Amino acid sequence: MSLKNKVQLITYPDSMGGDLRTLNAILSEHFLDVFTGGVHILPPFPSSGDRGFAPLTYLEIEPRFGTWEDIRAIGEKFDILIDLMVNHISRQSLYFQDFLAKGRSSEYADLFLTLDKIWEDGVPIQEDIDKMFLRRPLPYSTFEAGGKQERVWTTFGKTDPSEQIDLDVCSAQTRQLLRSFFENFKRQNIKIVRLDAVGYVIKKLGTSCFFVEPDIYEFLDEVKALADSLDLELLPEVHAHYSTQFKLAERGFWIYDFILPYRILEAILTKNASELKRYLTIRPHKQFTMLDCHDGIPVKPDLDELINTELARKLVDICVQRGANLSLILSDEHKADDGFDVHQIRCTYYSALGEDDDAYLASRAIQFFTPGIPQVYYTGLFAGVNDLNRVKETGEGREINRHNYTVEEINLALGEEVVQRLLKLIRFRNTYPAFDGEFQVLESPDSEIRLRWSKADKSCLLIVDLSSKHSVIQYIDKHGLLADYRI
Fold first, then answer.
1. How far apart are the C-alpha atoms of 23 and 74, rounded to whole Å?
2. Taking a C-beta distance cutoff of 8 angstroms, is the pair 402, 379 a contact?
3. Which of 56, 181, 210, 423 could pair with 46 in a Cys bridge, judged by C-beta atoms 3.0 to 4.6 Å apart?
4. CA separation for the pair 251, 283 (Å, rounded)
């Protein structure tokens, strides 16, 4: 299939009305002509943690969200993107539970990375671990399995032992399991599969165990061949040095533009677009663009060597003053030389911009004019503010941008002027024909940004004045006349 160059929505299965059936009703009533690019439904599977990202299986839908029938119903109107946590599966999955009961005699034992697959005698060496890009203090957990102590690789997880058990992607059994998941997605009318945490799948001593080349490309090429055979699009999710993303793009993969959210934030907060404009001239076009997501605004390692850490600290401080919290880098080796260690800024994008409607609409306009497929996270759709109560209740910093909207809250939000302005902008992005044409970054003062699209007799020019935060689109209308659209 070919992806539509239109705007997509990102939402949890229960974040817009409580379940998939209500989500379908809301999308059908309000957004049929808005999210014509598709809908990314964050993991709707049975899960034991991390809000869906510790799945027990991909063959079932969590009953409180609904059924595969509900997914297929949404898929009749919208292309659906769904996640596959290719690096790990839940500790509560039948596969790992069988391993815990039977140990090495379990039929699923080879799915998992016991430490003897990494270190010959199964004893971890700290010197090797020090080189790794860690997401928890130790990259393994200890279990009682089949009456014997087993240490198993666990890249992620806030508990000890972790709820997220790494899969051994070198195992034929794991490859077969992944195939069964892909084949099920095809049966359920899924169009796009996001390979979540794919950068961590290769574990190799002497490396960071993150995006290990060339092994990672061999794995991705194999998965792509499988996806191609089922007419599914792939979207690898990799938070890494920007050069890594560019390499993936060179190999023909869709990538995420994890640099754009920071660059736009920086331009609006400093009223200086010089770095943003420079970036827009060098980035690959085959990208998904976003400003906000279920995690946070990416900083390190995505922008390593692209940002001045002194300025970055000031921007981070502004966001923190506006209620944000931070995800930090754990490994000293992967912090900046001056100790700067911010992995992600966790907040809503609307709050990061001081809940300023014009600034927010300017940021969305820049996103939509940047080449690629734009995604809008559901809290961004409703110009949501930081949910500080939810952070307090759960102790999870990321919940700041994961508010669950009731139907009543959605109806109220749809009555807000800022939301109506955003919807109008999305419809323009979806329908104006020049967005399938040629893109240019035009010369302008640093306090201004001018982005132009043109195709045949149609063209549109976005002008954002960063001093006033006002945005206007000058475009050729259907009568061939020059028209102004003040966003």
1. 8
2. yes
3. 56
4. 15
For residue 158, the model assigns a pLDDT of 86
Q: How far is CA 100 from CA 67, 220, 222, in A?
A: 29, 30, 30
Q: What is the structure's pLDDT at 334?
A: 77
Q: Rounded CA gap, 466 and 362, in Å?
A: 8
Position of tokens 């690959």? 284
Contact 252, 210 (CB under 8 A): no
> Which pair of structure tokens corresponds to residue 363?
């940021």
DSSP one-letter code for 373: E
Q: Is the entire prediction scored with pTM above 0.90?
A: yes
Q: Cβ(306)–Cβ(271) under 8 Å? A: no
What secondary structure letter does DSSP report for 316?
A: H
The four Cα atoms 427, 432, 438, 443 give a dihedral, to 10 degrees, of -70
What is the maximum alpha-carbon separation in the chain? Answer: 78
Integer Cα distance of 402 and 13 in angstroms:
12
Residue 12 predicted with pLDDT over 90: yes
Q: Could you give the CA distance from residue 349 to residue 362 in angstroms, rounded to a whole number?
A: 12
State the residue for tokens 């993991």.
43
Known catalytic residues are 196, 237
pLDDT tens for 410-430 read 999 999 999 999 999 999 999
409 near 17, Cβ under 8 Å?
no
- State the pLDDT at residue 1: 59
Compute the distance between CA of residue 105 and CA of residue 3 in angstroms, rounded to an integer. Answer: 44
195 in helix, strand or coil?
strand
Tens-place pLDDT, residues 333-365: 778 888 899 999 999 999 999 999 999 999 999
3-state SS class at 327:
strand
Which SS3 state, helix, strand or coil, does residue 476 take? strand
Q: Indicate if the alpha-carbon torsion angle 403, 407, 18, 382 is positive or negative.
A: negative
pLDDT over 70 at 485, yes or no? yes
Beta strands 373-377; 438-441: pairing state = unpaired
| Residue found under tokens 């997501």 | 293
Q: Which residues are registered as beta bridge partners of 233?
A: 192
Tally the C-alpha atoms within 13 A of residue 404's C-alpha that lie toward its C-beta: 13
Beta partners for residue 462, in sequence order: 451, 473
Secondary structure of residue 407 in the 3-state scheme: helix
| Residue 92, amino acid | Q
